[in-house]
Predict the structure.
Amino acid sequence: MRERTIASHFARAALGGARRRGLDYSGLLQQLGISPELLDEPRARIAPEQFTRLIQGLWLALDDEYLGFGNAPSKPGSFAMMCHASIHCRNLEKALQRGLLFYSLFPDAPRLTLRREDEWVRLSLDDAQSWDPDHFLSESLLVIWHRLGSWLIGQRIRLEQATFSYPRPEHGSEYDLLFPCPLTFDAEQSSLLFHSRYLAMPLLQDERTLKHFLERSPADLLSRPDDGDSLSSRLRRLLSRDAAHWPDLEAVAAHLHISPQTLRRHLREEGSSFQELKDQLRRDIAIYHLGRAELSLQQIAEQLGFSEPSAFHRAFKKWTGLTPGAYRSQEQ
């Protein structure tokens, strides 16, 4: 229930390659309960499960794990074969090197490189040759390799910096869910920077855990936002324990052993606010329940602490551009 929802931008962007290839994906969207109305609304959100299934459906329909954005298609099964080739390596450095070597065997594949910079290591992507107007493939590849590496060693790799070879896009506010670290746009290349100590860590996964991992990956790697260790993420986890009885800012500050002024300032530095965090969490919990039939609109409003269903109705439309009723009807 605490899963973060996905901005409609990413669903529209993911469909770009299908449009380019002339694929009629209306049946797939109908099957997933994603209406054109929802896709056209910039503020709308979709559930992570829907997004995972959308990516998987597009892979099958296009016969291409690059979703139509690469110079040449990547046959379904390529990612799984790369994982099988890497899973027996003794540490993360060997596994990443073998995985990157695997993709380098395909001349038209986007090129990724790993290089050390003193105590740091940079994973760089050459995305100059891709047809990727919304940068969907670039973002996806960086996210997938970061989260694959984290999964292999059984702990989250803390990112120190993410750079992008293009200007900050309109959906830049969503980047904290993908890359919870300092961001640099208009850079020489797209890359991720992390500490080299991770490279020596042994792999904690094996063929058995890989089989389970590949049932949904890498699609669910894209749909599972990285909460990171920011103050916003910690507050979200704290608030999500009881959505109907929100602690006020003063109570939260006391829980964190800081002053309310310091809490406000830290959130402002992260580009957020206490009210914005509460609204985002309420929105995501509402979308979770609206996608299921267990609770009425009134019960959802009560669970979120609204005294009147009409107040919930107005708030939800402000958050997503759709009314709760319209959202539920297109989900069915």
Remarks:
- Strands lie at 6-7, 45-46, 111-117, 120-126, 159-163, 183-184, 190-195.
- The CA atoms of residues 238 and 255 lie 10 Å apart.
- The chain has a mean pLDDT of 89.
